[in-house]
Specification:
It is a single chain. The strands form two sheets. The protein has a nine-stranded mixed sheet, with helices on both faces. It has a four-stranded mixed sheet with strand order 3-2-6-7. With 299 residues, it is an alpha/beta fold. Helices cover 35% and strands 26% of the residues. The chain is globular and about 50 Å long.
Length: 299
């Protein structure tokens, strides 16, 4: 079983021929809304990967709440641990350029009300061997409480270090599996990394010190990881990206679900990398998350 404790947003997405420079206005080519939030995205990805998933978090009492939960509800994610807050539902303002790259500003709203008590309640319903997924779009004190409670119960924890915060290093130290992109990992390590070999050296040193599993996503170059003293690499698919929003969340959800389903780590990593690639072929975060059949047919 998988529980995701994290953010739930509505994404407001504008597309442009190219991303603007600071202070610049560029004409838009399209606009759409879609359910998002890193927590909700990862929950939906884990569910579409075939996992049994509970989503814990908060939405407001506004008009964005229902559409923010619609795809999760449709996928039969357990929503009983979602609170209703007086703050508005979280929103993400997303610009997507013609090359598929993006810029995102997140307004936490109700996500900022997810409490330590809520974390304890969510973890308290989990059993040893279950997987708890976390990100950094809810209060850091809540994330810390969840990680500590999970360790006491023998729950496996996976933390995605986005968006990277000053407190990330302290929180990451409490997790079993750490997933970061290359920029986040460099900042997390506190070292300058100039190439793949240097990154691997840092990963090995950190793994040797902590015993944690480290997974670094490298965009079109795939992913590199270290677990139980062994280095793993996996490639995604060769694609022309339409929109990279949600690709990292898709990777995390598929990785967690694959491990929960009993796949060996190498196979789980490859499956997650393929899923992340497919997520780049469709605009939006949650609408782009592929179903298991589409992913498994490409492996």
């Amino acid at each position: 079983m998988i529980t995701v404790l994290g953010s739930i947003n509505m994404d407001l997405i504008a597309t442009t021929a190219r991303l603007p420079e600071p202070g610049e206005t560029v004409p838009g080519t399209g606009f759409a809304t879609a359910a998002g939030g890193k927590g909700a995205n990862q929950a939906l990805a884990a569910r579409r990967a075939g996992g049994e998933v509970t989503m814990a978090g908060a939405v407001g009492r506004d008009d964005f709440a229902a559409p923010a939960l619609a795809l999760l509800d449709e996928a039969k994610v357990n929503l009983s641990a979602i609170a209703r807050a007086s703050e508005p539902t979280g929103t993400a303002l997303i610009l997507v350029g013609g090359d598929g790259e993006n810029m995102i500003a997140v307004v936490p709203g109700a996500n900022g009300t997810v409490s330590e008590d809520q974390a304890r309640q969510a973890v308290g319903k989990m059993s040893a061997g279950d997987i708890l997924m976390l990100q950094l779009e809810i209060p850091t004190a809540t994330v810390r409480t969840a990680l500590e409670a999970a360790r006491q119960r023998g729950v496996t924890t996976l933390i995605n270090t986005a968006p990277l915060l000053p407190e990330a290093a302290e929180l990451v130290a409490l997790a079993d599996i750490v997933v970061a992109n290359e920029t986040e990992f460099e900042l997390l390590s506190g070292q300058t990394i100039s190439d793949n070999a240097g990154r691997l050296d840092v990963m090995k040193a950190m793994h040797a010190k902590t015993g944690q599993t480290f997974v670094v996503t490298l965009g079109e170059e795939g992913v590199v990881a270290i677990r139980d003293g062994e280095v793993f690499e996996a490639k995604g698919l060769k694609i022309e990206p339409v929109d990279t929003v949600g690709a990292g969340d898709t990777f995390c959800g598929y990785l967690a679900a694959s491990l929960d389903q009993g796949l060996d780590f190498r196979s789980a990593l490859r499956r997650a990398a393929v899923a992340g690639s497919l997520a780049c072929l469709t605009p939006g975060a949650q609408p782009s998350i592929p179903h298991a059949q589409a992913v498994d047919s490409q492996i």
